[in-house]
Every structure is written in C-alpha cells, then in structure tokens.
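Weekly sync notes, structure subgroup
Attendees: PM, AL, DS (notes)

Item 1: joint prediction request from the bench team. They want all two components modeled as one assembly rather than separately. Inputs as received:
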Amino acid sequence: MAIQHPYLMFLGDSPDQLAAKVAQGVAHWRPEWCLGQLRLEGCKADLKLPDMTLADAREKGVKTVVVGVANRGGVIGASWVEVLEQALDMGMDIAAGLHQKVADVPRLAEAAARNGRKLFDVRHPTRSFDVASGVKRSGKRLLAVGTDCSVGKMYASLAIEQEMRKRGIKADFRATGQTGIFIAGDGVSVDAVVSDFISGATEWLTPENAPDHWDIVEGQGSLFHASFAGVSLGLLHGSQPDALVLCHEPTRAHMRGLPGYKLPSIEEAIDLNLRMARLTNPDVRFVGVAINTSGLGEDEALGYLQKVEAETGLPTTDPVRQGVARIVDNLA
Amino acid sequence: MAIQHPYLMFLGDSPDQLAAKVAQGVAHWRPEWCLGQLRLEGCKADLKLPDMTLADAREKGVKTVVVGVANRGGVIGASWVEVLEQALDMGMDIAAGLHQKVADVPRLAEAAARNGRKLFDVRHPTRSFDVASGVKRSGKRLLAVGTDCSVGKMYASLAIEQEMRKRGIKADFRATGQTGIFIAGDGVSVDAVVSDFISGATEWLTPENAPDHWDIVEGQGSLFHASFAGVSLGLLHGSQPDALVLCHEPTRAHMRGLPGYKLPSIEEAIDLNLRMARLTNPDVRFVGVAINTSGLGEDEALGYLQKVEAETGLPTTDPVRQGVARIVDNLA
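Output from the run, pasted for the record:
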C-alpha cells in the first residue's frame, strides 16, 4: 500500500486524549513524519504538534492526512467529511483506521477519483493473499508475542527496530495492526484477513531478505486469548521467527475482555509459544522479555523485572523505562 | 441460512468423478434429500441418482438445486448459467460452494430477485459475527480434530451424529465447510470468516443447548498444518469441546500440500489438542481415534487400528470399515 509521508494528523472532534491513541502512537514513533495536527471544534485531544490548517499542511509538503482517531462504532463523523474532501481537493491522500471505510463515503470516493488521490483504509486488506507455503526463507525474523492482548507488543517491536538501526543492523518493523501500519507506512491488518490466509498474509508481509536482515514483526493477541488465539497462531507460523520476545503486563486481573480467564504464567507462555513456533522454525528461541510496568511504582517495577529475569534467564526489561538494548545484545 | 431440501444435484459438465466429490458426499449422507441429478452434455460424473430434467425436479418437489461440483478456478461455467436461471424461474433456489459467487452472476442475481428465490454461496459467510466471549455454555460438544487436513473429519463427525441419533441421543452435526453445509442445510465456512471472528463464528454455530444435547462439530485443518493451524485453533477454542475425536490417515508421506512437513505422531496430536482445548474447557477429553485406512489392505488396517488402540487406550476405528459405535459407547 505504501502510505506517503509526511503526515498531517487529523484528530477530528475527539472527546478525550484516549480517542486519539492511534495518532499519538504515530506521533511518538515517527515525529519526523508528523508535521502537524488538525483539530475540529470541541476536540479534547492534543498531540503537542503545531496546529495546522489544510493550507498550512499543503504548503509544508504534507502528502497524507491520517485519521488516527477512534470514535464510538468506528464510523466517520459527518463533520469530518467536508475537511477530508477539501484535503483530497488540495492534493493530499487520506489514510484511516476506522471500521467504516473512507472509500465507502461517496463524497470522499468521488473526491479521490477526481483528484487522482489515494484512500487507505488500513484495517481492510485491499489485496488477496496466497495460502502459506511454510517454505523456509532467507533473512531473520523476530516476533513479539504476548501473554495477553494490548501488553505492549507494538511498542517493544518498534523499540527493538530503533535500537537495531542505531547499531547499524538492517531491521524493518513489519506492521500487523492499524497504528503500526501508519508508523511503517505499509503492512497488513492480519486480524482482518480471511482466516485461511493468516499465515499466508504473514509470509507475504515478511518476505525473503538478505541473510543479515531482520524483520521485526508486530505481534497480535495471544495464544492464551480465547477470542483471538487463532490469529496469534497464524502469525506465529507465517513469520517463522528466529527470535521471540515475550511481552507481559503484570497487573491484569484477567485476560483482556474475558473475565474469568486468568493470564498464563511467563514460563507457560514461553513454553507454549516455543512449542508452536517450532513447527515452522525448529531453531526458534526467546531472546528477551518486555514488561509493561506502567502500573507499578519504580521500586516494585525493578524488583519485578529482576524476578522475571532470574526465573527465565532472559534479558528482562521495560522498553519504556529502560529501553531494549539488553534484548538486542542477546540477538547477536 | 437454512437451505431448503429436497435437492437436485447439479453436476454440470464435470470432467471426472472427482470433480463431483462434494455432490457425492451430500448424496452419501443425505440420500433422502437428494432426489436426482442433472448432468450436462459431456458430464463424466455419476452419483447413481435418477437423471432428472428441471421439470421432473419441480414435479418431485425439489426446493434447491445444489451445485456440488468443482472446476478449475472455482468459477461458474458459462453453460451452467442458462440451466440455473431456468431453475430459478421455475421456483427453485440455488446453493453453490464455488469460489465465484452465484450471486455475482448478474443473470442469476436478477433471476433470483424477480422470482423471490434464494442464492446460497456456502463458501462465503453472509452474516457478521461477534468476537468470541469464551463464556461457558450449556449443552455438550464434540469436535473432530486431525493430524492433517482431509483425513476424514467430516465423515467421522457425520458417522457419530448418525450413530447417536440411532440410539436416541440428541445430536446435531454442525458444518464448518462447504460439503458439510449442504449436508446440514446450514453452517459456517469458518476458513472464509475474517480471522478476528473464527472463534466467535464457532460460538455462534454451536450455541447453548439442552444439557443432554450434543453438537458434533466438523473440524478443519490441523494444529500441525503450517498454512491452516490458526483456523483449527480458533475452531477448537470457540467450540469449547467436551469431547475430541482424533482423525488420521496413516499413509501420508508429508502434510497435505507441504512437502518437508512430517505428520505428527498420534500421541503428539492428542497431547497438543488437549493442551490447547483446555483453555476454554478444562474438562475436555479424547473419546476416540478415527483412522482412514482406505490406503491399507484389510489385515494391515486391522493391525494398525489395534496398535493405535493399544498405544492410546482409546477406542480406535475406521468409520468406513467398522462404524463408530465404540466411540459413541465411550461418550456415555
């Protein structure tokens, strides 16, 4: 798909900061791409980027307006359509991650057509995929897996890509969800792929590469999540990972969205992910554990990280507090 | 969806018997629904059903013409369209399991609309599903799982449903693939569901029921198949099986479509399926092993079945040669 940057981040009339979570992730990881923000009346979110009109954005060279906001039902606000249509008329593309497709809004589809502009609906795969071949391919791949959903897999992956690139290692983050796709400018929303093709889409996303090149693959869900484990397994098999990083959030009372379902232990998550991953890469190994300790105080966090490191024998770190250098050390 | 029977089996211009495999499965399991076959010039397949014209079929009370044939590319033959249009004009519905939708053929879509008839494209889900809740529900469920794809899971499931009904046990076969859907008259082609909803679609397909009612769920793929394991896992979690039956074909050199991938041992397949299934039903157990021994001679087959039974401690049978009575005995 290849979304062109730089971006103008469209926040619409977000009722709070959380509604702009996707945009915030993009601005955090690609500050050099995010030239400004456009907020409509009543918008309560703020990315601390310069506020811009569409005319400002065009003048600064913005290529794509990114709709990085969530709202109830994932629909495109009526008040947004006029602004987005103007953006198309001014020669910018639109990229959105809502359930409702911008391409399904007639005014926007027509405006894109008459201006020769592109509409990217990143939650909706626009191509078809082959069934996975399972054939071993060159290049190295690291996959972030989780004890649960939303435990920091994307953050850990991006931190690892950043650290590797800083060291001159060839590495590309491969996005499998909407925020990641805006950050990478490309990718596949794997949970929206027809289930026969989960692994095939992952093989397509992480093709053969130079022997010393690493794909850092964004994980999704968890093998222990009763709603989404199929997606996680397809991603695990399709990415044929050489290296795994386990991501975990230690304060959850139960699996996300599933009262009554307890989180697995870290040992159990390591063991099961290795067992399943060996099907397509018998040499797979864990290289680290990334803990989201945002729910713990500093001392408690450090104590917890040390405990997990002692139990697993793996570099264990909070990517936000401490970075991921020790995990990347362990890749060498 | 609820496809109305009785059926007229449309074989088109099938180049050989194999091309009519789906129709053959339906005729085998629902002989009382399949009143006749309609073959076009050059058809080399034969279900040994009475050959009928559309007029004959209408007179006999046929409700649905079932397109149970495969052809290269899964498209609707040009020579078929005229016949299928006539069937709609004569008041019959059409059900097809091709990749190309009959609903996408303008002449057929129009004929269905003007006659108030239905078009069933059983490979393509026509409804949306919720994400799986993982909540325990009443009723019992049995799922057929496999060491590989195409090892007899549908056959074993249907044989179990038949045997249970014969004994007066409440049992319903729940179809997850195209042939199964024609046989059940309803179902979900789970491999065509968007991957986020595999388990949710399975929960929908096997809803809560009377405590003594059994859903016999058709399995798909295998946890050991590098292309499709995600589908199998979603189905396993969503069906929350109380009972599992392992299906196996002992003469395969490698996993179907995956040279270089060996089949798992029966012990390994039992162990991994139990481990994964326990997430949504900790009390799950295997109740039998169904072996497709069609590739073995009689003596060899019996010897093999005895060996597996001794190794697993489970009733082990070839559903075709011996039926599944001993597996059903073990359900009680």
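Discussion: Chain A touches chain B at residues 131-135, 190-196, 198-200, 223-224, 226-235, 237, 257-258, 260-261, 272, 275-276, 279-280 (CB under 8 Å).
Action: AL to compare against the crosslinking data before next sync.
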